Amino acid sequence: MFARLLVFAGGLALVALVVPDLASSYLERRNEATAEDAQRTAPATAAKYASGKSIVLEADPTGHFFGTFRINGRAERGLVDTGASTIAINASAARRFGISVGSLAFSARAQTANGIVEAAYVSLDRVEIGGITLKDVDAMVLPDKALSGMLVGMSFLSRLSSYRVENGALYLVR
Q1: Helix (H) / strand (E) containing 118
Q2: Do 144 and 58 fall into the same domain?
Q3: Name one GO molecular function term (predicted).
Q4: Among 66, 77, 156, 168, whose CB has the most other CB atoms within 10 angstroms?
């Protein structure tokens, strides 16, 4: 009888020692898994990017993404367009950016929503938005009648480390 009592007491002592450690280990693993799940499912924010060179553009009511870009030091509102192969600016904007439009060769052709128009290739010294700065970015100058605003296309976007649309916002990351 005494032996049984000793074995029972020993078993209780062992359980008293092991259960708290098991419970603690279980809770730590559960909290880690919950944190990982939250990180995986939470919308990404600019703060999550180590470089700190990112910007988030909210969609306008029609679902388009506009931002204020600085081109060669001058502010210009532009529409981000993943369907455009390059940045497209009109001749008036080009003049504001310090480009001598009169010396450009309008020998290229650009496909626009309104058809094919003559265009000139240029390189923009500097394109900035938020903390993102790119130098020597390809662009096309179109006649004023062919383009009313600036389109920011793939010549800019392809030089970023990433860009994506998530929850109604466009994330641009350098």
Answers
A1: strand 115-129
A2: yes
A3: aspartic-type endopeptidase activity
A4: 156
We report the CATH number of the domain holding residue 156 as 2.40.70.10
Report the C-alpha gap between 94 and 121 in whole angstroms: 11
Euclidean distance between CA atoms 78 and 149, whole angstroms: 7
Task: For residue 19, give the H/E element and its range.
Answer: helix 2-41
Global pTM reads: 0.70
Residues 74 and 121 in one domain: yes
Asked if residue 54 and residue 36 are part of one domain, the reply reads no
Instruction: Quote the CA–CA distance of 138 and 42 in Å, as a whole number.
Output: 35
| Cα–Cα distance for residue pair 61/68, rounded to 1 Å | 17
97/113 Cα distance (integer angstroms):
24
Residue 36 belongs to what domain range? Answer: 1-42
3-state secondary structure of 103: helix
The CA-based angle 53-54-55, given to 5 degrees, is 140
Instruction: Quick: pLDDT tens for 11-42.
Output: 443 334 434 444 444 444 444 444 444 433 33
What three-state secondary structure class fits 92?
helix
pLDDT at 48 over 60: no
